[in-house]
Write a structure and sequence with these properties.
heterodimer, A: mainly alpha, ABC transporter involved in vitamin B12 uptake, BtuC, B: Rossmann fold, Rossmann fold, six-stranded mixed β-sheet, 19 helices
Chain lengths: ~350, ~525
């Protein structure tokens, strides 16, 4: 992972990045089973429902892909920031800004050809998310403010701005609900397969992490970004402009979260309303961590978390288990993963 | 003085770290009311000895007697209970608390909530009064209610001293107390210390500045290579004798080299000034020249501006005034990348922090300054095969012992890490090479390798600025030697062992003491 110029990974790194997450998932499921049993639920029925919620039929699989889409996009962005040593806790706010921009273009550009309008909307989402994140980057390098604090604060502001937009200037014509009108039909992202809601945005969720990965590991810019992430002092000594890397990395991170927001509006919801994200920006952090901050790995961890969400919904319907079980499982996975990595670090100081 | 029971007596103290004998059969006596200086170069064993006394390090052998009674000191806590206080060079204060809070910290059990409430909330005024009384009794000017973060360095040092006094110490150890002080603050401190001894307190002062030894101490013990090499009554000695004791040595290090053939000046530094906090001059109107094909050694005790000199030349630190010219090209205030492009290379003093990305492979570290250029990047993409080939060539050329160029350099030994830095910096045949502490922490073999490589660069026509606190290294490698003291060049001598004693005197600031110059900014005394 770290020795980038060579794609060959040592056994220890492979072990660390693939086996440990799988072990963590297993351990989380075991502890989850224990919790279900202690709460008096039928574990077999519950996990059976979870399983069929994910793989039961083609529609469910499509639904898992749909849920995974924003998580993958957000997670890939957070991974980029992490690689530069930045904690972007503001993906949630960047997602909102991207959603607002996507909705704005979606509402205004309906007359244009979709081939022009849809990319414009996505780019607007990327731009707004990126600029929103750039504020935190700028505050970090100019005033030395910790990005964890500023990105969290910017989340509240972004959510507030969307709240204002959907009750004010962008509110639907009937002025009844705190939401915008539906975007033009031509702006809706095409569905990939008949009978499934999964849309073209999922292709983007496959493509962008690959591009991010190339950027990080195959370009000089990614090299500089990772050098700063590991050791900003040595990077500075080597002539790398550390502050510029910080701002670029968090902006790119925000741009991916912004795209996720625009994709969610154009592909699933069709309009902007308050509380449009069920915490994608925060779950994205876990998605990135589970993938050891590797954009390609984020595709898989995003799929897992997406699948857990759909699976848990069926679990709720058929086994009457609260869907908050998803969050418990996600939390357990991350807790186990972090502990396993720490333990492995003791056994093998430098994997 | 000799008839009294000594406040402190150390007998036969020895301590080794690995193969290094840091303290070797050391004996030391300090009388009540005495100021005793412990003099020695970096690495002479002063700090180890004091850490043993303060319970931070356990000796291998030897005994400690306090007021005639044998004592075993296992922790600083115990040292304090026995009446030993220590003021470290780096203060141990909580900046967000007040002076009084810092002083009483750790004197009361914090685990008792009731006592905590009493001490911190209800008794705040009483504590401030108590601390104020202690400070006043010893003539220390300090506001007990002031927040430590708002205090100057000199005032913070006073807080450290009050902390020790409040706990009723009888023996106070000060580790290089003047290193961070302005001359005014230094003379205030010395006046205070004399007041203390009048009250019966004993003081051990660790220093390497000879004029301070002469100014303040009653007796002095000189350490060299972990051994006591001399004990003197201050009044009966002089700086020359002390300097000789401090640096006089057997020749341990020789590097084969032929006479230098210096060419035109390659690196010219003029009137370089770097200001630190409170207007302290870290570099003060410093000028030097290094010709192509020569090694200019910069000798000096650590912390006299070495770091700032290297960083200013390489563009990491922006000088406040002065100029830097390389082969006629003005480079003052240029970006690090531009300076590197002017063929100025740098072996930084801390290879792990400044020189290497430890999580990166050797291959990536080799291209750390060139990765975005041809041939390592083509059409915007890194070229792994080229980077790898480059690494393999350098690994062979510089004899880096690593199982694979893809292994993170964190896994390499210190010597091999330094060879990676060396390979990166000198492979391109630099015009100017700034080598800061190039062999710090390396074993004999690696040290020899680095020295040979530096001389080879010199012979190839590079101008080499060797900044090292190892006098032995400077003597062995340099064609000319300048001595850095408090940010200024205080003297220059040919690179010849005949001048060792002279260098020692200059390193210890004797020259500086003879020429009192207004060296400090006007705003040094603002609080």
């Amino acid at each position: 992972m770290t020795t980038v110029t060579l794609s060959r990974q040592t056994g220890a790194t492979l072990w660390r990045n693939i086996a440990l997450p799988l072990l963590a998932i297993l351990a989380a499921l075991l502890v989850g089973a224990l919790m279900l049993a202690l709460s008096g639920f039928d574990v077999a029925a519950a996990y059976g429902a979870l399983w069929s919620g994910i793989f039961g039929n083609a529609r469910n699989i499509g639904e898992a892909l749909l849920r995974a889409t924003p998580l993958i996009l957000v997670g890939a962005g957070i991974a980029i920031a992490f690689r530069c040593g930045i904690w972007n806790i503001g993906a949630e706010g960047q997602f909102y800004m991207g959603a607002a921009a996507g909705a704005f273009v979606g509402l205004q550009a309906g007359a244009l050809s979709p081939w022009l309008a849809i990319p414009t909307a996505l780019l607007a989402g990327a731009l707004c998310g990126g600029l929103w994140a750039a504020i935190a980057g700028w505050l970090k390098v100019r005033l030395g403010l910790n990005e964890v604090v500023t990105t969290i604060m910017l989340n509240y502001i972004a959510i507030g701005i969307v709240g204002y937009l959907v009750t004010g200037p962008m509110q639907e014509a009937s002025r009844y609900n705190p939401q915008t009108d539906e975007i033009a039909a031509g702006m809706v992202l095409p569905r990939l397969l008949p009978g499934m809601r999964v849309h073209a945005g999922f292709l983007l969720a496959l493509l962008l992490p690959v591009l991010a990965s190339i950027l990080l590991f195959r370009t000089p810019w990614g090299f500089a970004l990772r050098a700063v992430g590991y050791n900003p002092v040595a990077a500075q000594h080597a002539g790398i402009r550390v502050n510029r890397q910080y701002v670029l990395a968090i902006s790119l991170s925000g741009a991916l979260a912004g795209v996720a927001g625009a994709v969610e509006v154009l592909g699933v919801i069709g309009r902007l309303y308050e509380n449009i994200s069920p915490g994608y920006g925060f779950t994205g952090i876990a998605v990135s961590l589970l993938a050891a901050n590797h954009p390609i790995g984020v595709i898989f961890s995003g799929l897992l978390f997406g699948a857990l969400t759909t699976g848990a919904e069926l679990m709720q319907l058929t086994a009457q288990i609260p869907s908050s079980m998803t969050f418990i499982l996600q939390g357990l996975i991350i807790a186990f993963l972090v502990s396993f990595r720490a333990l492995q670090g003791r056994v093998w100081p430098r994997g | 003085m000799t008839e009294q029971t000594p406040r402190l007596r150390l007998a036969g103290i020895s301590k080794h770290f690995g193969a290094v004998q840091a303290n070797n059969d050391i004996a030391l006596e300090v009388a009540p009311g005495e100021i005793h200086c412990l003099l020695g170069e970096n690495g002479a064993g002063k700090s180890t000895l004091m850490n043993i006394l303060y319970g931070l390090v356990r000796p291998d052998a030897g005994a400690i007697f306090l007021d005639g009674k044998p004592a075993t000191i296992r922790s600083p806590h115990q040292a304090i209970e026995l009446g030993i206080g220590m003021v470290h060079q780096h203060f141990m204060l909580v900046p967000t608390l007040t002076v009084a809070e810092n002083v009483i910290l750790a004197t009361r059990p914090l685990l008792s909530l009731r006592r905590l409430g009493e001490s911190v909330i209800r008794d705040r005024r009483a504590i401030e009064r108590q601390v104020g009384e202690v400070a006043q009794r010893y003539g220390l000017k300090i506001d007990p209610a002031a927040r430590v973060s708002a205090l100057s360095v000199g005032e913070q040092q006073r807080v450290e001293i009050v902390k020790a006094l409040y706990r009723g110490v009888k023996l106070l150890i000060l580790d290089e107390p003047t290193a961070v002080l302005t001359p005014q603050e230094t003379s205030d401190l010395f006046k205070t210390l004399r007041d203390f001894t009048a009250a019966g307190l004993s003081i051990i002062l660790i220093t390497h500045k000879l004029h301070e030894v002469m100014a303040i101490s009653d007796r002095v013990t000189v350490l060299r290579d972990g051994k006591v090499v001399g004990r003197r009554v201050t009044r009966q000695t002089d700086t020359h004798e002390l300097a000789e004791l401090m640096v006089g040595r057997d020749v341990r290090l020789t590097v084969e080299k032929r006479a230098a053939q210096p060419g035109a000046p390659a690196l010219v530094v003029e009137a370089l000034t770097v200001l630190g906090a409170h207007g302290r001059r870290l570099l003060d109107q410093l000028s030097l020249q290094v010709a192509a094909g020569e090694v200019l050694g910069v000798a000096g005790v650590d912390g006299n501006g070495q770091r700032e000199l290297a960083l200013a030349i390489t563009g990491i630190l922006r000088p406040d005034s002065g100029s830097i010219t390389v082969e006629g090209k003005a480079l003052t205030g240029a970006m690090p990348r531009q300076i590197a492009d002017a063929s100025v290379r740098h072996i930084p003093e801390d290879r792990q922090q400044m020189g290497l990305i430890l999580d990166f492979s050797a291959a990536d570290n080799f291209v750390l300054k060139q990765f975005s250029r041809l041939p390592f990047t083509r059409r915007g993409l890194l070229q792994p095969a080229t980077i790898l080939a480059h690494a393999q060539r350098l690994i062979r050329a510089f004899d880096v012992r690593t199982p694979s160029p893809a292994l993170p350099v964190a896994n390499l030994s210190g010597g091999n890490q330094q060879k990676v830095v060396l390979g990166r910096e000198i492979d391109s045949n630099p015009r100017v090479l700034v080598a800061a502490q190039p062999t710090r922490g390396l074993d004999v073999g690696a040290t020899e390798y680095v020295h040979k490589a530096l001389i080879a660069q010199r012979d190839a026509g590079a101008a080499i600025l060797l900044i090292s606190t190892e006098l032995e290294e400077v003597l062995a490698l340099s064609d000319r030697i300048v001595v850095l003291y408090e940010g200024r060049i205080v003297g220059e001598v040919p690179g010849d062992r005949a001048n060792t004693q002279k260098i020692g005197l200059m390193m210890a600031g004797v020259q500086a003491a003879l020429q009192p110059v207004e060296r400090w900014g006007t705003n040094t005394n603002e609080a």
